[in-house]
Design goal:
346 residues; mainly alpha; 3 domains
Length: 346
């Protein structure tokens, strides 16, 4: 058993959340660190530094048959995890993920995207227990963003997410004051999705022609422009979606729901000004440290969101060939002196 597998197994004693709704990032960060080249000592050191605030799960027997009947029941995590574990033993994790995704993706923003992200990290780490935990977390916190309405007659769709974000910004129906939003990201998304007209937004994107990578670029541009904490989860969420893409029949199973969640995220942070094309190109062309240097900086970071963002930027950069993701990682670790840290870290 690898050091990562051992640590992930040992971490199963902790609940998926703590302090009333904050996500337990330990297993996700461990996979990210391992993928970026962390040594066994670094992985063990990270565990020692990141467990004191976590909450242990109760020691009790879990009931069988929880999925899908106890979906959206936050008290059912242990039972859902036991059910997914049993299914993985019987069918293998790939079959279980393939079977669960079409239902789960309709609530892709569950727990501020962390159900999705934790599942994807379990897949990256090839750890059955962590995949079961991710699926159970996603299922227990499953949430629908408003009511999806039929597309209005004559409505034009687009393949460009940035164009659609600009459309959201100009539509008065989606005015939203983030200062009045709930504190937790997933609650803020639900509040944004309750606005009149949001039910049609899912149809704005041509999901058969727009690739997840296009959504990743849009999420990256939004985070680059704002440094906003909620926008960060759009980047890590799209990267997680790309990990899971091979386990759905076609990308249109995933893309509409990811777009809907990104739209709600943009609304929830107040629809800030979007960057101009020239600005994005300047970020892409900016001088940044090479990836080996950025990864060493990322491995020394204590904040789990920074660790995950750097890992997501690394993998999205490899997947798309887009230098914007390297710029994001460089800013995240403070390697762009003229820019400083992103807004949420200041």
């Amino acid at each position: 058993m690898s050091v990562l597998a051992k640590l992930l197994t040992e971490a199963e004693i902790y609940g998926p959340e703590y302090r009333g709704g904050l996500a337990n990032h330990l297993p996700m960060a461990l996979v990210a660190l391992d993928q970026m080249g962390a040594t066994p000592g670094q992985l063990n050191g990270y565990v020692r530094a990141h467990t004191s605030w976590l909450e242990r799960l109760p020691e009790r027997s879990a009931a069988a048959g929880a999925w899908p009947f106890r979906k959206a029941n936050r008290e059912a995590f242990l039972d859902l995890r036991a059910d997914f574990r049993r299914r993985i033993v019987e069918q293998g994790w790939e079959a279980v993920v393939r079977a669960a995704l079409p239902d789960l993706v309709r609530g892709v923003s569950a727990a501020a995207f962390h159900g999705l992200i934790r599942t994807a990290m379990g897949v990256v780490g090839r750890h059955d227990g962590e995949i079961a935990s991710g699926l159970a977390y996603w299922a227990a916190h499953w949430q629908r963003l408003g009511v999806t309405l039929p597309a209005p007659a004559g409505m034009e769709s687009s393949t460009d997410p940035m164009t659609l974000l600009a459309r959201l910004r100009s539509d008065p129906r989606f005015a939203f004051d983030p200062k009045k939003a709930p504190d937790l990201i997933d609650d803020a998304l639900i509040a944004a999705a309750a606005l009149e007209g949001f039910g049609e937004v899912i149809h704005w994107l041509d999901a058969r022609q727009c690739h997840v990578a296009d959504l990743a670029r849009a999420a990256a541009a939004l985070y680059a422009a704002t440094g906003n904490f909620s926008a960060l989860h759009g980047v890590t969420g799209t990267q997680a979606t790309i990990v899971l893409l091979p386990y759905v029949r076609e990308q249109s199973v995933l893309v509409p729901w990811l777009w809907q969640a990104l739209a709600a995220t943009y609304i929830s942070i107040g629809r800030p000004q979007l960057p101009e094309t020239d600005t994005i190109e300047a970020w892409r062309g900016a001088e940044t440290p090479a990836w080996p240097d950025l990864l060493q900086r990322a491995l020394a970071e204590e904040d789990e969101h920074t660790v995950k963002l750097c890992y997501s930027a690394l993998t999205l950069g490899r997947t798309t060939g887009d230098r914007l993701f390297r710029w994001l990682a460089a800013r995240e670790v403070g390697a762009l002196k003229e820019k400083g840290l992103p807004a949420w870290r200041r």
